[in-house]
Specification:
Number of helices of chain B: 13
Shape of chain A: globular
Helix content of chain A: 25-40%
Number of helices of chain A: 8
Strand content of chain B: under 5%
Strand order of the largest sheet of chain A: 5-6-7-3-8-9
Largest interface: A-B, 31 and 28 residues
Number of strands of chain A: 9
Oligomer: heterodimer
Number of domains of chain B: 1
Shape of chain B: globular
Distance between the termini of chain A: 37 Å
Order of helices and strands of chain A: EHEEHEEHHHEHEHEEH
CATH superfamily of the largest domain in chain A: P-loop containing nucleotide triphosphate hydrolases
Number of strands of chain B: 0
Order of helices and strands of chain B: HHHHHHHHHHHHH
Number of domains of chain A: 2
Structural class of chain B: mainly alpha
Structural class of chain A: alpha/beta
Radius of gyration of chain B: 19 Å
Largest sheet of chain B: none
Largest sheet of chain A: 6 strands, mixed
Distance between the termini of chain B: 28 Å
Chain lengths: ~240, ~260
């Protein structure tokens, strides 16, 4: 099980306000109007790092530094530039905004199934673990209730439970671990501790305590560039310097 | 193109996912109705009964003949219309959250959209068969033609849904234009009027691809035989649509995530 990233870069053109309108585009062509100049965005530039089984990587950086872009790229949702190399060995589970996968008018039970399927699990496995998910999330009594009837805390608990009870080898998480009340958080931490040695965790977060609690390596990003990759203490020193703290 | 063919195949065999996506959308759509999708069927049936009563008098044809003709044509048209409408919003609205959050091939979503509407089409079959029975138009060969048509129609719908979904994601003002075009196509396609009324001018209508789809479906069911030209047109259009979908997928697969707002 490993993640190897070499020379990872992502560039794209920033959309202008006129993009996405065929009529406007055709009119501009007909009238031979000059097209708006497009701004090239360097979302990630030349990232290099390697993770092996048991590694827990925390990704930190200011807003817009490329943390979520990196998670999405490792998840295969967005694609890097052609010369980039991403070698991932292991079953990958990306958790960016699992709430966006829910069908709010449907029942909690059906949402567990659909979210599980979308995350790449077989229905057979989801059905086997459905009672554990409901039990862990303390929502046994809400199985046939609508997803929309849950409070936001309950929704997060449920999503956390779906993701971690269904289990995987590589977890790619974008700001998601600080979930629920104190009791649930403790349960969540215990669950994560169990999987610590036989999985890889990539966690992107602004929460310093979560990074220090869950991670053993850190990647500091600044405007899409890799400022540091290594141990937590040194990483935060560089990050604090960058932030001017 | 080989990669795209594999992706299409993998999406097609991912039955659990696209079935569940379709079921979820069906449940969401008919959330507060007791009859579910059958409510739409009964609603359309009522409309068609009224229209058939009126037009059979206007055009001086037997009510049951006109009703059968209208029911079959309109049922397929409704499927085409709802598939197109769903497809136009598929990537730009309905599944934005999915495309932004999980690794999924856009083909799976196009298949789920097609599957959902295809199921609704199949739900109309008991009624169609009953009406054909009443009208003494049940033929054994209809089974073969209908299955063959449904197979081609399913593939065409997947490809067309994907193409429309990508186009409407890239160009957000297209959805309205497509809606207007469909309204026009409805009147130029023999759904509520009989193609025989055109006489020698039938050649003009044969340029309309949807005519062949409607004709293949209707004639296969009603007469148990289909004009060879319509079979060829539907088969060739299906093949070309799939080829185009594969090509567009190859060209846009890496861009789709960036086009989503």
């Amino acid at each position: 099980m490993h993640i190897k990233v070499k020379n990872l870069s992502i560039t794209y053109f920033l959309k202008s306000i006129h993009d996405g309108f065929l009529r406007k585009k055709m009119m501009n062509k007909l009238l031979k109007k000059k097209q708006d100049e497009k701004k090239l965005i360097y979302a990630l530039q030349n990232l290099n790092f390697e993770l092996k089984e048991g590694d827990r990587l925390g990704i930190i950086g200011s807003n817009g530094s490329g943390k979520s872009t990196l998670i999405k790229c490792l998840s295969g949702i967005i694609f890097p530039n052609d010369d980039s190399i991403i070698d991932i060995n292991g079953k990958c589970l990306s958790i960016i905004d699992p709430g966006a996968l829910a069908e709010v008018t449907d029942t909690v039970l059906n949402n567990i199934i659909i979210i599980g399927l979308l995350l790449g699990f077989e229905k057979k496995i989801i059905l086997q673990k459905i009672s554990s998910i409901l039990e862990f999330s303390e929502l046994d009594d809400y199985a046939t209730h609508r997803f929309s009837s849950l409070s936001s805390g309950m929704k997060l608990k449920l999503l956390f439970s779906i993701v971690f009870i269904l289990d995987s080898e590589i977890f790619l998480i974008d700001e998601f671990l600080t979930t629920g009340d104190e009791k649930f958080r403790k349960k969540g931490v215990q669950l994560l501790e169990k999987t610590k040695t036989n999985s890889i965790l990539v966690l992107c977060s602004h929460d310093r305590s979560a990074i220090k609690e869950f991670c053993n390596k850190i990647l500091v990003l600044n405007n899409g560039k890799q400022e540091y990759f290594g141990n937590i203490e040194d990483g935060y020193k560089i990050y604090d310097k960058l932030m001017g703290v | 193109m080989k990669k795209e063919i594999i992706s299409l195949y993998q999406s097609l065999v991912n039955f659990e996912l696209y079935k569940e996506l379709a079921d979820t959308k069906m449940r969401a759509r008919y959330n507060r109705t007791v009859l579910g999708p059958f409510w739409e069927i009964f609603g359309a049936l009522l409309l068609l009964l009224l229209l058939s009563f009126l037009w059979s008098k206007l055009w001086k044809v037997k009510f049951i003949d006109f009703f059968t003709y209208l029911l079959i044509g309109y049922t397929l048209w409704r499927t085409i219309l709802s598939t197109t409408t769903d497809a136009c919003q598929l990537y730009s609205y309905t599944y934005t959250g999915v495309l932004k959050n999980v690794k999924i091939h856009p083909f799976v979503l196009a298949i789920s959209c097609t599957y959902k509407n295809f199921l609704t089409l199949l739900m109309n079959f008991p009624l169609i068969i009953f009406i054909l029975y009443l009208n003494n138009q049940l033929h054994f060969s209809s089974i073969f033609f209908t299955i063959f048509f449904l197979f081609l129609f399913f593939l065409s719908s997947i490809a067309a849904s994907f193409l429309l979904a990508v186009l409407c994601l890239k160009y957000r003002d297209l959805e309205h234009t497509i809606g207007v075009l469909l309204g026009m196509v409805f009147f130029f396609t023999p759904i509520i009027w009989n193609v025989d009324q055109l006489g020698d001018n039938i050649l003009y209508i044969q340029a309309n691809i949807l005519y062949h789809y409607i004709y293949f479906f209707r004639s296969g069911l009603q007469n148990g035989e289909v004009n060879f030209l319509s079979i060829i047109v539907v088969a060739v259009v299906t093949f070309l649509l799939i080829l185009l979908a594969l090509y567009v997928s190859k060209k846009t697969n890496k861009k789709i995530a960036y086009w989503i707002d």
